[in-house]
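During the reporting period, our protein records have gained a structure token line. A sample record is set out beneath this paragraph:
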Amino acid sequence: MVISAEIICIGTEILLGEILNTNAQFLAQQLAALGIVHHYQTVVGDNLERIHRVLAIAAGRSNLILVTGGLGPTPDDLTTEAIASFFDVPLVEHPQLWAEIQTKYTRGPIPANNRKQALLPQGAKILTNPVGTAPGMIWEPQPNLLILTFPGIPTELYAMWEAIAVNEIKAKGWVQEIFYSRVLLYWGISESALAEKVNHLFGSANPTVAPYANYGQARLRITARANSTAAAEELIAPIEAEILQLTAQDCYGKDEQTLASVVADLLRSSNQTLAVAESCTGGWLGQMLTALPGSSSFFLGGVISYSNDLKINLLQVLPEDLETYGAVSETVAMQMAAGVRQLTGSDWGISITGIAGPGGGSELKPVGLVYIAIAAASQNPTVQAYQFSAARGRDWIRRVSACSALDQFRRRFVMIN
């Protein structure tokens, strides 16, 4: 018997775009890790009739239904009521659950409407919430159909899943194989160019290879199906090795690594330091580096040099070069990188100068033109020009500029060392 799962997220706020539906992403990842087939996700508003329609479809095609949202005490929290009425089962109060909810409530006298959270369909088990007041349910309303409900608050869902839900699913004997993925991360190469290099691997059945991209980054996901993580890793290993040989330095990392964390590892391992000089990115690069714990061991600091006066007085950019070439130029970028390295005494300096828009561009220097320079001790600075799409907007240009600076540094560092 092939077990299939379905995710139903309840909440009008999701439909209105007021919140990002990270719960569906989390549950999808967990199902994949368990090797449970998952073909459908649905978002439905806080409406009894529409929830019934969604349940009718899900119950007819899936064995495991995971429901998030709608477990609060307010009138529009309809999940438990909707599930019970759909299966024509009465709601039953659990006194011990109501006592627990009252104990957890710390904001003064508990409102009477919170009592509805102690109601579950007759025959349902309590899915304890170790973090919040809203419990969920574990219920098998009919053979080969298991329903689990979770609050919409992500931290509560995560805790309930880890503490109880995953073991309940395993206890059903439905977990036969697992899906395990290795994600290879790329910067500086397009998704289409990457796909061309590994096109012959896309037909592989186990493991599978799939490309995708977002925010300038390309990825290759290698997914294996096996009885254990170790067995899956064995299947993935030769495919991963072949891909890395074909894509070489374009691959900067794997899985949860970031460009910033990779750069940090390079600097820490060599006991070297870095400083940055930023113009159009306004501190974005520095923020990415300082977001890493322990960044003070390799990152000395940065200068946000928007004005020409700061470029001259702090970074020792020559006034005549600013006049001749402009702030957005190869010459100024190289002087900024060398200047911040000298100012801070760091081993490396990175600079970014460009036109993030939406205004300020010209025919010779359009919006999206960015120069990134790298300075190292006893070597002349290197610089690279980028032309990012103006149509994507100011923040996108600033973000990809900072990421491109880290990637450019990574490649230079590896080449020198």
The mean pLDDT is 95. The radius of gyration is 27 Å. The chain is about 40% helix and 25% strand.
